[in-house]
Amino acid sequence: xxxxxxxxxxxxxxVRPRRDLGRGRLYLRRFLRNRLAVAGVVIFALLVLFSxxxxxxxxxxxxxxDFTALTRPPSGTHWFxxxxxxxxxxxxxxxxxxxxxxxxxxxxxLTIVVAAVxxxxxxxxxxxxxxxxxxxxxFLLIVPSFLILAxxxxxxxxxxxxxxxxxxxxGWMSTARVIWSVSTSLRERGYVTAAEFMGVRPxxxxxxxxxxxxxxxxxxxxxxxxxxTVLSETALSFLGFGVQPPDVSLGTMLADGMSTVTSAPWxxxxxxxxxxxxxxxxxxxxxxxxxxxxPTSVTGAAGGRR
Length: 306
Fold this sequence. Notes:
Elements: H1 4-7, H2 23-32, H3 35-53, H4 89-125, H5 127-142, H6 145-155, H7 160-169, H8 173-186, H9 190-197, H10 202-210, H11 215-238, H12 250-258, H13 266-293, H14 298-301
């Protein structure tokens, strides 16, 4: 009996069924169809490259002072101009963006980790643990955290490492409550029950079976958390409670340029532009990830075309 292979004509190829795309490739295709999300990735990548390699294109550092060029507009020597102390704004922008990125990414990652562990643990254990955890979360949510952040940051003399710790301690509650809400349905799943039946420890169940199934939620909150942290750090530094001189961040640069926004607009315009680009790019990326990971969303169902 002749087979399909035997009867195939010479020079022709056997048509094979197309394999289904893997989950990762499917998410990537949905994400790449979102033009704003791709634009956000490009902008964010350029900002990261600028913060890492931008200092190679100037002989100045953010602490160098050129006393022969005080509050000078952009020129061939100082591309972004100088401030009242003769500091090069270009070099300060590179260092300030780098500092703000380190703070934002670190706080966002730490916040997601803390929120994921606490929120999923409360949902898994239930009972008194759940009620006590939610009571603490709700109490901290009504506390004026920004005032506490300002006071604590001021006492810590503007150390950016301490600022990361403080922003993390007061930034995990809202995300933890969302994770708890989603995890309450995951604790009833069959794989969790099977793991309990096999004698797997609760901590291992939480880390191996509950948190990994929150991946899409955690990724989206991670990207949007960067935006929230940038705005919080900028506001604190703008008010004098964040990063302190001689160190600089985008917030401190905005604070310095605010008083001279009419007489020396370049002092405010360049850091403000970087803040806008950073927040807009992360917002686009967060929206794109949400649509790619959630096919029920409007743009996700439509292929993410914008």
